[in-house]
Amino acid sequence: MKYSNYSVVIIGSGISGLYAALKINQIANLPDGILLITKSGLGESNSKYAQGGIVAVMKSNKKDSVSSHISDTIKAGAGLSEFDSAKYISENSDKVIHDLLNFGVEFDFDENGDFAYTLEAAHSVRRILHSGGDATGRNIENALLKKIAETKEIEVYENTAAVDILCNSDKTTKGVITYNETTSEYETIYSPAVILATGGIGQLYKYTTNPKNATGDGIALAFRVNAELQDLEFVQFHPTALAIDGEENRFLISESVRGEGAKLVDADGVEFMQDYHELKELAPRDIVTRAIFDKMQHDNTENVYLNATALDKSLLEKRFPTISKKCAENGIDISKDFIPVAPAAHYYMGGIKTDLFGRTSIKGLYAIGETASTGLHGANRLASNSLLECVVCAYSVAKYLENEELKSPKKIDEKSKSVIDKYSNDVFLEEKDVKNFKKNLQEIMWNGAGIIRTEYSMMQALEQLFELSRNFHRGSKCLNIEEYEFRNMLISARLILQTAIMRKESRGAHFRSDYPQTAENGTHSIITKDELGELSFVK
Ligand SMILES: Cc1cc2nc3c(=O)[nH]c(=O)nc-3n(C[C@H](O)[C@H](O)[C@H](O)COP(=O)(O)OP(=O)(O)OC[C@H]3O[C@@H](n4cnc5c(N)ncnc54)[C@H](O)[C@@H]3O)c2cc1C
Fold it and tell me: Whose CA is nearest to atom 46 of ligand 1?
């Protein structure tokens, strides 16, 4: 076991982690330095795949306003979006966009030199900025990575997973334990500020738009130290992922393709969204997803189609170069052919409960980005609000840490020591077929807690999950990062099932065919871990 000391440790190198590292390094006093850890290589994250864009209520955009953005966010959130979160995040969008420009991010501009805005579902005005047409996430991430490379003060560990948080009995964070896959070494990193920027949970599902590393680690790490978690039952399924046979990790066909006018059609080219919602293709995501799911079941097909052939070819090439290329690689010319699409797990509204400074219920433990739940998204995220939340909350955690004393802790108690001991001891571990375990879990979650849920489907899934857990059977230590991911997936999947079973209504992305109505007064569900290690409801 190695030991080290830092003022701040950030876990995750998506847009929230990278931007937080740069801002904290710019603003805060860091006597013991700053460390960024990522379990894969730098640049591999959900962020890299974000296409459509980032919401920005720019002061220069006279057609838009904070109140209009708040109203759209709250409408999409199905009664659970927090007004204060929506207001704060919207009000700060102009500032962070200018800051991103200073960091070298290049957004697309129109022929008049103004920001080029696009429209996505459930936005009442064009307010979504993009970069490189449909490469927004990749371009923001690359610009931030370039700055990270130039900033010598920020140390980076790649191929290193955070495996446990150190937390004293008084609920104060003391650091984190990491495992480096390249050297097979564990390290205890003492730090008074640990920031979870670990992203989403898409890999818990058979079909997902998320990359391999979206395994819900932050949720599991936070639960293991009894942090409060919020709205875990709300998983957003994107309506239009490219449905190519055999591909379970599905490439996203951004909502902005529908925003620009593409239509959803069946195999005969007949439009069907008018049968489901007055806003048709631009209805809220959960509605479009369930409409497609229903249509697929009714027609007994594996997908429906997106018809973008009426759009101007040059617009398609300019606005959607990444999508055009990916489709062309699969023999689809989007200016002439229908695009086969089906829903896939996409975004996690639930997460570690935080305030707008990223503070969790554990002192010194912060969470930002997709792993956090600020209450912005409620039961259903408004398109392109997530990247905005990532950057605004990364900015505000940096502002908060500006006023904190960030000396690496000198003392830990027995509780933290016992966690370190677990990883210090050598234990013999038999190899497990973890790839197969992951596949099973993904199948269980897709069938049991997918787009349409019932008490029966979820109880059955829970039982199957317990069986899987018994077969995996690991104590604290695992053999490699993939096993740690699976350990985390088991925890996150169980918590999603348990909270979804308890929510006996349908709301936003959580749809139960046995409780199709939405209750009158919706409330957040907040959970933590009790003394016996079981889930307990705080609210
Ligand atoms: C295909 C796709 C398209 C999208 N399009 C849009 C869009 O147009 N607009 C929008 O607003 N949002 C979009 N989203 C959502 C948005 O991209 C994400 O919500 C956002 O990028 C999340 O950023 P993050 O920094 O929180 O996490 P991520 O970008 O997912 O980064 C998480 C990081 O944490 C690391 N990590 C995880 N666990 C550990 C661990 N235990 N130890 C060490 N490192 C760890 C991962 O390796 C990764 O580096 C899209 C998402 C996808 C998948």
Answer: 12
Q: Rounded to an integer, what distance in angstroms lies between the CA atom of residue 232 and that of residue 495? A: 7
* Residue entry with tokens 């650091």: 175
Q: Which of 144, 149, 63 is nearest to 105 (CA)?
A: 144
Q: Ligand 1: which of 39, 46, 160 to mutate, most ligand atoms within 8 Å of CB?
A: 46
pLDDT single digits (tens) 52-77? 899 999 999 999 999 999 999 999 99
- Alpha carbons 488 and 222: distance in angstroms, whole number: 10
The closest alpha carbon to 7, from 27, 15, 422, belongs to: 27
Confirm or reject: Cβ of 249 under 6 Å from ligand 1: no
Give yes or no for residue 210 having a pLDDT over 90.
Answer: yes
216 Cβ below 6 A of ligand 1: no
Output phi, psi for 250, to 5 deg: -100, 135
Q: How far is the CA of 85 from the centre of ligand 1 (A)?
A: 20
Q: What average pLDDT is seen over the chain?
A: 96
What one-character-per-residue DSSP string does 444-476 give?
HHHHHSSSSB-HHHHHHHHHHHHHHHHHH---S
Check if 46 has its Cβ closer than 6 Å to any atom of ligand 1.
Answer: yes
Of 335, 276, 263, give the one whose Cα is nearest residue 304.
263
What residues contact 128, with CB distance under 8 A and at least 6 apart?
A: 52, 53, 54, 55, 56, 117, 118, 119, 120, 256, 383, 384
Question: What's this model's pTM, rounded to 2 decimal places?
Answer: 0.97
At position 498, the amino acid (one-letter code) is Q
Q: Which residues contact 459 (CB under 8 A, 6 or more apart)?
A: 501
- Alpha-carbon distance 305 to 175, whole Å? 49
Q: Ligand 1 pocket, 210 CB below 6 A?
A: yes
Q: For the segment 432-466, what is each residue's pLDDT rounded down to a tens digit?
A: 999 999 999 999 999 999 999 999 999 999 999 99
Q: Are 61 and 126 in contact (CB under 8 A)?
A: no
Q: Is 290 a catalytic residue?
A: no
Distance 170 CA to ligand 1 centre (A): 31
Does residue 241 line the site of ligand 1, with CB under 6 A?
no
Nearest to 243 by CA among 233, 234, 252: 252
- Ligand 1 binding pocket includes 236 (Cβ within 6 Å): no
Atom of ligand 1 nearest to the CA of 130: 8
**In this structure, which residue's CA is closest to atom 31 in ligand 1?**
14
Map residue 85 onto helix, strand or coil. helix
Interatomic CA distance for residues 319 and 413, integer angstroms: 55
**Atom 4, ligand 1: residue with shortest CA distance:** 50
pLDDT single digits (tens) 297-336: 999 999 999 999 999 999 999 889 999 999 999 999 999 9
Catalytic residue among 285, 453, 474, 507: 285
Name 520's Cβ contacts closer than 8 Å, sequence gap at least 6. Answer: none
- Calculate ∠ Cα 381-219-92, nearest 5°: 45
Is ligand 1 within 6 A of the CB of residue 40?
A: yes
